[in-house]
Specification:
InterPro entries: ALIX_V_dom, BRO1_dom, BRO1_sf
GO biological process, one term: protein transport to vacuole involved in ubiquitin-dependent protein catabolic process via the multivesicular body sorting pathway
Oligomer: single chain
Strand content: under 5%
CATH class of one domain: Mainly Alpha
Protein name: BRO1 domain-containing protein
CATH architecture of one domain: Alpha Horseshoe
Strand order of the largest sheet: 1-2
Radius of gyration: 38 Å
Helix content: 55-70%
Subcellular location: Cytoplasm; Endosome
CATH superfamily of one domain: alix/aip1 like domains
Pfam family, one: BRO1
């Protein structure tokens, strides 16, 4: 049921295709056209009939020699053809329909089980299933030892997930009606396969993430989400109707994958915890991963992939090694309490995949097959009825939206339900402000600024060291040149070092000036952080709502009816919420009614007036329109009642003072956010500056190194020439070397406030010459 990947990465599963038996579509469909239209119409549609016949024959004759991409394209074209004929050829046992066509398909996972139906629904479901299966096989065939191969594999598994999701949402229910059906095309199985394909897509992304050397925190989130997808597939496999349908090794594979990626997430997350010196939680996370792997190893059946078992053993070894290290460090240095595993929050997860939307890919609206079977007058009549339905839907949808907006505006004006939540100790920030605070806290918050400042200082130090090292290179070369110049006098004819390195020295001086000015800017940032930390400290409050003022009960009560006032108002708000939920349901009902409102078969067979048919059909929307009107009337009365109740509530609990306190707190938070963003932007600007400067200085250092090496080679050759001249051994006139080209060019300095960026270095060859 599964084939191993050819790569050295973990084994994955491909879904086998369903098998079918031959069926003749050509003759029954042609007879239907002749009987309901004419022989001429059948002759005109001969090409379409032959094309459909050839498609079905190719579906039946699939062999391993066919390429998977060809198979995929065939399935996509055939499903669009089925969509086209569905509305034109009623296939059913009815004597007036196409009743001699029976589609038979075998279960992909239990080949002895089969289903036969005299309708197109099983055929569509089976083709969608096979489309997902082929996409999974394409994904498995990709070379996941390369970055591009893993990317292609992930894309194919995403497409497979999309096909199975489309099967679940659009065809599974219809195909499962009746006694003759198979489990593989059920909603439950299609949903499980979608989760499995998403898991394998996320796993491919995880493999690429590891290859790129991403941080442990990022790897942990991606790994955990892969595990969650596998866990969802396992959950579906453990309940009816799937729990008795799949081979044990197949189920075991998915269970082990779920455990493996949970443990992998624990391992990666523990690495991040170790970097943060949160040793207690690190030990707990490692123990959790080890426990999960140990339990999984106890229950896997015979035939389980050795590759997965090797991966589990390898990961278990790494976890045990890190556990031993962490426990020793904790015992000797940190002495932190190890929290119980059940007290830890869930591991963070982040999905980088989602099922491909197949609507556009399988859209049959542009397929011209059998297009002439719908007469123009019927098409125009259908368009007219569609316009009538659209008008009803549009009018009612506008009423529903207006009702929801009216309720939202009224509640906002009355500060509901925020004031009720505040009384219960659950104050809330305005959504936009809450999102701003959340963004600040996710980015580290004020408490994280010190670490970023340290990073800024470290980068400045590295740049300064590079400048010093470069200056020392040039100084050493100049000293050597000066010594030989003193020794040989006028015979030492090559240019002096300081004339060749002037441009380099100028640029180094410019970089030194840059660093001095940057140090001043860093100092301003340091002072700004210290000076405004008290202002920004509120942003480190978690949850931020605890920093808001509280709404308390009145100190003195005249009639002690506060609880009754609050209870009545909360009851009315629950009623208002119920009306809103009812409106959402009514809107969904409208859309569902429109989707199912297919009067084309009636139009094709109607002998009376189209207008009479339309008036009769459109009345099906009357009941829901009446329900919408009742809902809006009830809401109008309820809002008036809530207004009166809220006035009493505001008077009892002095809401005016509370609102003023909240506004003051909001402004404080807004000010803190503004200052944090300003400082954060300055720090980011500094980091960007130092990274750019480091690249420029490194370039100059390389040029200086090349220059020094070339001059050293020249020096040795020239010493030999001069010594030969002195000794009189040379019979040739002395050869004077051309001076090497001057390295460098352009200054790195400048004036102005803030960080001053060096010019972008151009790629240069080092000085050359004899």
């Amino acid at each position: 049921m599964a084939a191993p990947s050819s790569s050295a990465t973990n084994i994955m599963l491909a879904i086998p295709e369903k098998k079918t038996v031959g069926v003749d579509l050509y003759r029954p469909l042609r007879n239907y056209i002749v009987f309901n239209y004419s022989e001429r119409e059948a002759q005109n549609l001969e090409d379409d009939l032959e094309t459909l016949k050839e498609m079905r024959n190719n579906i039946e004759r699939f062999s391993a020699a066919d390429s998977l991409s060809t198979r995929r394209d065939l399935l996509q074209n055939y499903i669009k053809a089925l969509t086209t004929i569905e509305s034109r050829f009623p296939i059913s046992p009815d004597k007036d329909h196409v009743n001699s066509v029976t589609f038979t398909w075998y279960d992909a996972f239990k080949n002895r089980n089969k289903a036969s139906q005299k309708n197109i629904h099983l055929e569509k479901a089976a083709i969608l299933f096979n489309l997902g299966a082929v996409h999974s096989q394409i994904g498995l065939a990709c070379d996941r030892s390369t970055v591009e191969g893993r990317r292609q594999a992930s894309h194919s598994f995403i497409a497979a997930a999309g096909a199975f999701a489309y099967l679940r949402d659009n065809a599974a229910t219809k195909a499962s009606i009746g006694n003759s059906t198979t489990v593989d095309v059920s909603m439950e199985c299609a949903g499980m396969l979608e989760r499995l394909m998403l898991a394998q897509a996320q796993e491919s992304v995880f493999e690429n993430t590891i290859a790129k050397g991403s941080t442990p925190g990022v790897c942990a989130k991606i790994s955990r989400q892969a595990g969650l997808y596998y866990e969802e597939a396992v959950a579906a496999l453990n309940v009816t109707p799937l729990n008795q349908h799949f081979d044990k090794t197949w189920i075991s594979h998915i269970q082990l994958k779920a455990t493996l990626f949970y443990a992998e997430a624990c391992y990666r997350y523990s690495l991040e915890l170790h970097e943060k010196e949160e040793i207690g939680e690190e030990i707990a996370r490692i123990n959790s991963g080890i426990t999960a792997l140990s339990e999984a190893k106890k229950s896997y059946p015979r035939g389980t992939s050795q590759q997965i078992l090797d991966s589990i053993n390898k990961l278990e070894t790494k976890l045990n090694f890190n556990l031993d290290r962490a426990m020793k460090e904790n015992d000797r240095v940190y002495l932190l309490r190890v929290p119980p595993v059940n007290s830890l929050p869930p591991l963070p997860a982040f999905s980088l995949v989602k099922s491909m939307n197949m609507n556009d890919l399988l859209d049959a609206s542009k397929v011209r097959m059998f297009a002439t079977l719908v007469p123009d007058n019927s098409a125009k009549a259908l368009s007219r009825y569609t316009e009538m339905v659209d008008d009803v839907i549009r009018t009612q949808a506008e009423k529903l939206q207006q009702g929801s907006e009216l309720a939202r505006v009224h509640l906002k004006e009355m500060s509901l339900p925020d004031s009720i939540l505040a009384l219960e100790g659950h104050s809330v920030l305005p959504p936009a402000l809450w999102e701003d605070v959340e963004a600040v806290q996710v980015s580290g918050g004020p408490a994280g600024l010190q670490g970023e400042l340290q990073q800024l200082h470290d980068l400045r130090r590295v740049n300064h060291e590079l400048v010093v090292q470069t200056e020392e290179l040039l100084e050493k070369e100049a000293t050597e040149d000066g010594q030989f110049r003193s020794q040989f006098g006028t015979r030492w004819t090559r240019p002096q070092s300081n004339t060749l390195t002037k441009n380099l020295q100028d640029r180094l001086n410019g970089f030194a000036a840059n660093l001095k000015q940057a140090a001043d800017s860093d100092g301003k940032i340091d002072r700004s952080v210290r000076g405004h930390m008290a202002l920004m400290a509120i942003l480190d409050t978690r949850p931020i709502e605890t920093a808001l003022p509280s709404l308390g009960r009145p100190i003195m009560s005249l009639d002690a009816n506060e609880d009754a006032v609050v209870g009545a108002l909360k009851q009315s708000l629950r009623q208002l919420e119920a009306l809103g939920a009812q409106r959402a349901g009514l809107e969904d009902m409208l859309k569902d009614m429109k989707t199912k409102d297919d009067i084309l078969p009636k139009l094709m067979t109607s002998t009376g007036s189209y207008e009479d048919l339309f008036r009769k059909e459109i009345t099906k929307y009357d009941n829901i329109c009446e329900e919408i009107s009742k809902n809006l009337q009830a809401q109008e009365q309820l809002l008036l009642h809530i207004q009166a109740q809220n006035n009493q509530f505001a008077s009892t609990f002095n809401i005016e003072d509370y609102t003023a306190s909240c506004e003051k707190c909001y402004k404080q938070i807004e000010g803190a956010i503004a200052k944090y963003r300003e400082i954060k932007e300055n720090i980011n600007e500094g980091l960007k500056f130092y990274v750019t400067l480091q690249e420029a200085i490194s370039n100059i250092k390389q040029q200086a190194s090349d220059f020094a090496m070339t001059r050293s080679m020249q020096c040795r050759e020239m010493v030999e020439d001069v010594q030969r001249q002195i000794s009189g051994l040379s019979v040739q006139p002395p050869y004077y070397h051309q001076p090497p080209p001057q390295p460098g060019g352009g200054g790195g300095g400048g004036d102005g406030g803030g960080y001053l960026y060096p010019p972008q270095p151009t790629q240069q060859l080092g000085p050359s010459g004899p």
